[in-house]
Amino acid sequence: MKIIDIISATPELLKSPFSGSIMKRAIDKKIVKINFHDLKDYSKIKKKQIDDYQYGGGSGMVLMIEPIDNCINHLKKNNDYSEVIFMTPDAEKLTQKVSNRLSISGNLIILCGHYKGVDQRVRDNLTTMELSIGDFVLSGGELPAAVLCDSIIRLIPGVLNDETSALEDSFQDGIIAPPVYTRPSSYNNLKVPKVLLSGNKEKINEWRDKKSDEKTKKMKF
Question: Is the dihedral of CA 98, 104, 110, 112 positive or negative?
Fold first, then answer.
């Protein structure tokens, strides 16, 4: 069973994404175990303080190194981890290739950024990997952490009912998946391409390959 421990200043934001659909199924099947850790539980400062003003002045609060270090050390006493990942916009972009690798790795710790960020000593010494879901800023790393988990968990064998489905997703082979259609074959005079109704697998595969190539070139992927 893969263990993913998520460290957050606001762990209540994380519960909903894991309470339904594919991620809940993976948890219920005991394929993956998700643990949420509140940074405030690891603060030894009065009133459970986890952030402070930045040295040198400037706006915004910064997550302190001590509670993060305390939490990571506590987790490492109980489990081994392949990566300690910090979610931050100024980092390597999450790609299908990264998700594939992390899906077959060992246990993971995911640290969610918050406020103005974290003390740089955390990034330099306590984490092994940094990931971004895009060039934009959110209020915290909780939603990016959920996105990362979803992209990883769906790839683990036994999670999806049809395990070949994930292998046919966009980006798996460096291309974007072709358009898909379902019933009815005609709706308000909008029709499904005839080739998909032909039953000719060779022609269907040719059509899908062509459409994938067109979409990939259009997206400049």
Answer: positive
Cα dihedral 9, 25, 109, 96 sign: negative
* Domain match, 83 and 111 both: yes
**Bridge partners, 84 (sequence order):** 109
Run of H or E including 121: helix 120-125
Q: Which residue, chain included where needed, has tokens 């109704």?
A: 197
CATH number at residue 72: 3.40.1280.10
> pLDDT of 74-95, one tens digit each?
999 999 999 999 999 999 999 9
In-domain check, residue 166 = no
**pTM score, whole prediction:** 0.88
In the chain, % helix, strand, coil (3-state, to 5) comes to 40, 20, 40
99 lies in the same domain as 64: yes
